[in-house]
Design brief:
With about 475 residues, the protein is an alpha/beta fold. The protein has 16 helices and 11 strands. Strands 1-3-2-4-6-5-10-11-9-7-8 form an 11-stranded mixed β-sheet, with helices on both faces. Strand 2, helix 4 and strand 3 form a beta-alpha-beta unit. Helix 10 packs across helix 13.
């Protein structure tokens, strides 16, 4: 069932939330030993949570848009009743004293919080191989990665271990794993969803968003978690428009640009699926043209200066003094060094060193200032393009899921997985990945929709149509 149908099913009394919890437990116990999507899962606690929701239904009546719907959380969103580790040894076993805003919102709407999912340590990676605890596998092929850094959240939904999940997207960490796992993934406009309670990687880029099996479910979850939050200074004020009721609007009269620079980096099969989506959208009445925005090719270089610079600052708080791991040493400086040496993994150390170097005296203007100027250039280029187009279309990932270990020893090859997704983060714009068929090996391909700030309604309007087209193409292929 999709989330709305499941919630209605429970609301009508056709099933209890305990029934749902038992089904989730059965799925996880069967599948997760191979997939390894969850870092924290407690079957007993899940049943107790389900019982409390059922009691609330009995005493107060059915309530909440996510009533009884299973939702998994990426383990960089703080939870007061479960450990939050960011998949790092430096936070192993840490129990936060509060819940993230998005966690409060889904709980208030009656969601069943399944557990915490695996990620690349501190969300730094594109394959979920950088976790300090385990490597998550792609449900479509266990020899391949699920993408990253939100690979655990994507895999949990793709494998049916949770109806919905939440991830965070700094440079593509929702959309890329969504594409590789064959689910819907949305990165909203920066500030559309509160970041309060999200463990920071790069604060000017991070954004929480949903994973779902359908566009409608993604719309529902985004509606629930979005909105202004006084606890987040970057949170955008004002009402958020409805997204769930856009499924039948179609794409007639919309102007859709196929971003040529993104296609240049793709495999042939991924390119063909994007071109097919463009062709079919044109047949449905959209005005579709190829468009060039050369500045987006600079996104990868700018990102890998800006994001590590912000990470080096954000991660300075993990020093063994206030919380998390502490290595006992005879002096304070030795304790700092030993704690961070033992607690951080190789990729996190690599990015801290890159960021510290870029911000250091003598190199700030040479690297960081130029990266910020490049970011402004990318924003300006997008603004120019969006004067002529409502939405842009392109690939989400240059390839389908690659094999575990294939790129682990080559950081540059790994970083290239973000080349299609990073520009939207740098601009602060919304973007989403929608499944659109498979390659010759049966691995999922996602097409990416990009829009200007606060264009979520138009983005979802097109996404609903892309989803319909993907279904029709699949039916023809099967026939």
């Amino acid at each position: 069932m999709d989330a709305s149908s499941l919630s209605d099913f429970i609301r009508e009394g056709s099933a209890s939330v305990v029934d749902v919890a038992k089904a989730v437990i059965a799925q996880i116990e069967t599948k997760d030993p191979d997939i390894r999507a969850f870092l924290h899962f407690d079957a007993k606690a899940l049943l107790e949570q389900a019982e409390r929701i059922d009691q609330r239904i009995t005493s107060k009546g059915p309530s909440g848009r996510l009533l009884g719907v299973p939702v998994a959380l990426k383990d960089n969103m703080v939870t007061s009743n479960m450990p939050t580790t960011a998949a790092s040894k430096i936070l192993e076993g840490w129990m936060p004293p509060y819940d993230a805003t998005v966690v409060k919102k889904i709980v208030d709407e009656g969601a069943l919080v399944v557990g915490k999912t695996n990620l690349d340590e501190f969300a730094m990676g594109s394959s979920t191989e950088n976790s300090a605890f385990q490597t998550t596998r792609n449900p479509h092929d266990l020899s391949r990665v699920p993408g990253g850094s939100s690979g655990g959240s994507a895999a949990a939904v793709a494998a049916g271990m949770s109806t919905l999940s939440l991830g965070s997207d700094t440079g593509g960490s929702i959309r890329q794993p969504a594409a590789l796992c064959g689910v819907v993934g949305v990165k909203p406009t920066y500030g559309y969803v509160s970041r309060y309670g999200l463990i920071a990687f790069a604060s000017s880029l991070d954004q929480i968003g949903p994973f779902a099996r359908t566009v409608g479910d993604a719309a529902l979850l985004l509606e629930v978690i979005s909105g202004h939050d006084p606890m987040d200074a970057t949170s955008i004020r004002g009402e958020r428009p409805s997204l769930s009721d856009l499924s039948d609007k179609g794409v007639e009269t919309l102007r859709i640009g196929v971003l040529s620079e993104l296609l240049d980096n793709c495999s042939q099969e991924v390119r063909e699926r994007v071109e097919l989506a463009a062709q079919l959208l044109a047949e449905r009445g959209a005005k579709v043209e190829t468009v060039s925005a050369k500045a987006v090719t600079l996104g990868l270089s700018a990102y890998y200066v800006i994001a590590p610079a912000e990470a080096s600052s954000n991660l300075s708080r993990y020093d063994g003094v206030r919380f998390g791991l502490r290595a006992d040493r005879s002096s304070l400086s030795e304790m700092f060094l030993a704690t961070r040496t033992d607690g951080f993994g190789d990729e996190v150390k690599r990015r801290i060193m890159l960021g510290t170097y870029a911000l250091s005296s003598g190199y700030y203007d040479q690297f960081y200032s130029k990266a910020l100027a490049t970011r402004d250039l990318i924003r300006s280029e997008f603004e120019r393009v969006y004067r002529d187009f409502d939405i842009l279309l392109g690939p989400t990932s240059p390839t389908t899921a690659f094999r575990v270990g294939e790129k682990a020893q080559d950081p540059m090859a790994m970083y290239m997985n973000d080349v299609c997704t990073i520009p939207s983060n740098l601009a602060g714009h919304p973007a989403m990945s929608v499944p659109f068929g498979t390659d010759s090996s049966g691995l999922p391909i996602g097409v990416q929709l990009l829009g200007p700030m606060m264009s979520e309604p138009v983005l979802f309007q097109v996404a609903f149509e892309v989803e319909r087209l993907a279904s029709e193409v699949s039916e023809v292929k099967d026939a």
